[in-house]
Amino acid sequence: MSDLHQTIEPFTTTGDLKRRNLRDLPWWFFAIILIAIYAFFIISTNENYNSAFNFIKIGLLITVKTTLIAYSFAIIFGLLAGLGRISKNVFINNLSRLYVELIRGIPILVLIFFLAYVGVPVLIDSLNGIGFWLIEQNMAFLGKLFTAVTNQDISMISRAIISLSVTYGAYLAEIFRAGIQSIAKGQMEAARSLGMSYGQSMRYVILPQAVRNVLPALGNDFVAMVKDSSLVSVLAVRDITQVARLYAGSTFRFREAYIILAVLYLTMTVILSLLVQLLERRLKIHD
Amino acid sequence: MTNHDHIIVVKDLYKHFDEIKAVDGVSLNIEKGKVVVVIGPSGSGKSTLLRCINHLEEPTSGEVWIDGEKLTNTAKQINEIRAEIGMVFQLFNLFPHLSVLDNVTLAQKVIRGRSQDEAKQVAMEKLTRVGIPEKADAYPSNLSGGQQQRVAIARALAMDPKIMLFDEPTSALDPEMIKEVLDVMLDLAQEGMTMVCVSHEMGFVRSAADEVVFMDFGKIVEHTTPEGLFNNPQYDRTKLFLSQILEH
Lengths: 287, 248
Known about the structure:
The structure holds two protein chains of two kinds. Chain A is mainly α. Chain A contains twelve helices and no strands.
């Protein structure tokens, strides 16, 4: 059968092969590169675009900072909640499930409003309340600890970071849970049979394998968070989206502002997606 | 109290999974240094019994005593006792993200508190013993099934266990690799290791076993010597089973 193929192929595939190769090229990617090149060409030649770009790029630092810090916290929340989701302890299990289901049942935009204007203030007010009560009970030292931070101290950017990390923590929790559950049961049994505790088995045997398996998924969620970080503009945090809105509002150059904004996000996400794909390919080679 | 000659004592052990009575009232005493092979049809509860000995399965009721100490359900005590009981699995269960050497040193470092050098020295000694010191830097996925199982045995031995449990150690192996694993087990048996093996390798039973336990429907049907099993099985169920596996 395979011999037959080999003898027939030269007759049929010379033309096909070229056509198939052309078809397999990532044309969509070339289109994106073309868009980016065109955009940056315009930015460097057109004065209006140039001034819009120079104004909007100031927000890049906030976008990058917000995303990186929020994602780091989201990984911690996600890992804890993911471990909680598979815990045999009924309380921890249900608490984690509650967190995940609550967050995933509410739109991210609404969550950002809610956490920044309700979640954080209510938490701080309660802590302050405990603090004042402690001071009344003549426990001034402890009381001062609880009253040290007031709502005014928590900037909008901090609230934005808290909102994004709490939100993404719930999404990452499901990734970690799936990653841990994808590891064969025998791995935990082998670790336990050597005398390791549940925690030690998780740390040395299960998590290293699980995290490696979910790295591409974590990368994809990082890209998603770069995009969702634009939502913090509703808190007046000066990320690129907010800065672009300000620019458009004050100059009425909506076209310039939002084209540049879109191209900036596109550039970031395409580069990051490529890195994730590279990582994925590298992980596959090592399997 | 239990007899101190018995390193493993199983008393009225029951393990029920919902409606299934996997182990249904088993009592078994095993002397130090003995090699006991557990045989029986699939689903007879042999593996579950083995897994109850180190509490990988928590018994529904009954007692397990290891070296004069009763297993309670406190995590700390069970972890400590498990470190004294090596276990070898049907599917090897090596840690795929670690090299062979790290597979064998991990628990030594974490549980026994040995230094990297010390753990490595013990690991190389055990890997030499199972005949593959040259694979120390390889990863499990690059080893044959027989080699993986021998690494798994080395990993268990590196903890200096008092008891070794084997759960169908050769069932997942290609025929030509069974011998290399059985040779290691035979070697261990001759050195006086207390071993409990779930296995249908009748050659191993003949050459290494001191006692044979035949299980059916979660109960011990026959507890005898290899000679007794092959020459003079007492029960029809044992006879039928033997005739089926020895025919080939």
